Amino acid sequence: MSKKGRSAVITGSNSGIGLGIAWAMAQAGINVYLNSFTDRPEDHRLAAEIADATGVSVSYIKANLANGDECRRLISEAADCDILVNNAGIQHVSPIEEFPTEKWEAVIAINLSSAFHTTAAALPIMKKNGWGRIINISSAHGLTASPYKAAYIAAKHGIVGLTKTIALETAQEEITVNAICPGYVLTPLVEAQIPATMKEYGMGREEVIEKIMLARQPSKQFVKVEEIGGIVNFLCSDAAAQVTGTTISVDGGWTAL
Ligand code: NAD
What we know:
Elements: E1 7-10, H1 16-27, E2 31-36, H2 41-54, E3 58-62, H3 68-77, E4 83-86, H4 101-129, E5 132-137, H5 150-169, E6 175-182, H6 188-201, H7 205-213, H8 225-235, E7 247-250
Parallel strand pairs: 1-2, 1-4, 2-3, 4-5, 5-6, 6-7
The structure holds nicotinamide-adenine-dinucleotide (NAD).
């Protein structure tokens, strides 16, 4: 029942948290399918780099997860899917009156509906294999709200509800379904925002991080992608066999406030 030798499909995994999860899983001996909507040489090079460094099999599958059929094709193109990590996500920030309908629809499609489609496609494979793990990357914003992020917060709360429902539907099989709720994670995207925020507030790097970016994160430290990878590996371990239908907050105390 060990996770070694299993296969994982990780959506949105050519950067940030998804890529961190891919490295952690590959280092734990899990074969990995990377995904995003692009099909650049560097996407495939990334797969080769992880495979070379870890010795597991790593492939890249292009699929645009804004489209339900593409989500289902992603799962059918993977040779196997013991573990599904629904990680792909986008953000749009705007007051509700000005929130463009197409942005609402894109955020809901990529951050929420994609997990419905990939889960529906992956569950028959997991049931046939007699083992499965579904891990949804929600957010501290799956449990709390902030203004101007209506679509993101609706989607991230929605994925927590989806997690609980699928966990109940699979409770008597060797399949678990859980959501991870990270606080602010230091990804290249977040790192790139630091200089502009320093300029905007006339603050130094440390002050911007503590007072602006991590205002709601009591630890005053970013979560690291490796830490999210470690939690994913824990959820795939035998020790987590009875952990299902729940959320794991990795947020430096955000949701304890
Ligand atoms: P990121 O932008 O680095 O990664 C997002 C990934 O999703 C990328 O690989 C991107 O290519 C992919 N993606 C976007 N649109 C797609 C589409 N249409 N089809 C397929 N793939 C698509 O951002 P990240 O910070 O690593 O975010 C990853 C997940 O973690 C998201 O769901 C995000 O909401 C969640 N999250 C991030 C933070 C944070 O602070 N960074 C905190 C909590 C939750």
